[in-house]
Design brief:
By secondary structure, this protein is an all-alpha fold. The protein contains 14 helices and two strands, in the order αααββααααααααααα. A two-stranded antiparallel sheet has the order 1-2.
């Protein structure tokens, strides 16, 4: 009798797993499932379209082929847009790290008074619409540096400016967690120069923060549209401008457009997963 009573109140193994993963029980699980479907289904449809021979009357394509992917990578314009976007995003990410790491280190170790200035600079790109920033740069460069207008250098400076907040907060949090003030003091006590302290002591201790900031800057540049559109236009066609121009074209190949969209999504997804993984590692380290 007692055994039967205990068996009647024992939870099923399946319910235990879901309740552990989703403390809010089944409604939360269903809501997350719907959100996942809302995000995944459009990308799945885009991927199927990129490998479809024809898709008109059925819920799935009539046939499948990789010819659109081969055609896309055989197209010089397609490869050029992808290569330009990757190179520009890489230069923006490296430029951000070179500028932000020494600035935050100097603020933490030597001059805490400039913290408010750096935070204000980090807030400006988030508070001002990007279109306003683009028109402001056009006006400023037209008045004082006309030769810079329409150049990739102006686009590079603008993208470094709008990616600054994401890199600044990642580096600032990493240096706060590593307590770089104490590390720098210990290094100076041992006779290390400022450059050696930064290179051999500080950088190894803020690696996850640098990686997170680099990925955020890379993703911001790779997915940026209005600054490139207004400052240089199709003379430097990136992935986003390629997609925009293809949508405007009357003879666009939508299968190749789907290929580029999937590549764009894949790059963004990989960057997002890496950032989440690095932040999870930092959180576990702090907790430990």
């Amino acid at each position: 009798m007692a055994v039967n009573s205990m068996a009647s109140v024992s939870p099923k193994p399946h319910n235990i797993g879901i309740s552990r993963l989703f403390p809010g029980s089944m409604p939360v699980f269903l809501m997350l499932l719907m959100v996942a479907a809302y995000i995944i289904l459009p990308m799945l449809a885009t991927f199927l379209y990129s490998v479809s021979t024809r898709w008109t009357t059925h819920i799935v394509p009539d046939g499948y082929t990789l010819s659109h992917w081969f055609d896309g990578f055989a197209d010089n314009r397609f490869r050029g847009a992808l290569l330009r976007s990757l190179c520009l995003a890489l230069v923006v990410a490296l430029g951000e790290i070179i500028l932000v790491v020494p600035a935050v280190y100097w603020q933490k170790v030597h001059n805490p008074g400039i913290k408010n200035i750096l935070q204000l600079l980090a807030a400006i790109p988030l508070a001002i619409p990007i279109l306003v920033i683009a028109f402001g740069l056009l006006q400023l460069s037209g008045d004082y540096m006309p030769a810079a207008q329409g150049t990739i250098g102006l686009v590079l400076i603008a993208q470094i400016a709008i990616a600054f907040p994401f890199v600044y907060w990642a580096i600032d949090n990493a240096m706060s967690s590593a307590r770089v003030e104490h590390l720098a003091e210990a290094a100076r006590t041992c006779g290390a120069s400022e450059l050696k302290t930064l290179w051999h002591v500080i950088l190894p201790n803020i690696g996850p923060g640098i990686a997170t900031g680099t990925l955020m800057a890379f993703g911001t540049s790779f997915n940026e549209v209005p600054l490139t559109q207004f400052l240089i236009g199709s003379r430097f066609e990136t992935v986003q401008l390629y997609l925009l121009n293809m949508l405007r074209s009357s003879d666009a190949d939508y299968n190749i457009l789907a290929v580029m969209t999937i590549i764009n999504f894949a790059v963004t997804l990989v960057l997002s997963v890496c950032v989440v993984w690095l932040n999870a590692g930092n959180f576990a380290k702090r907790k430990g």
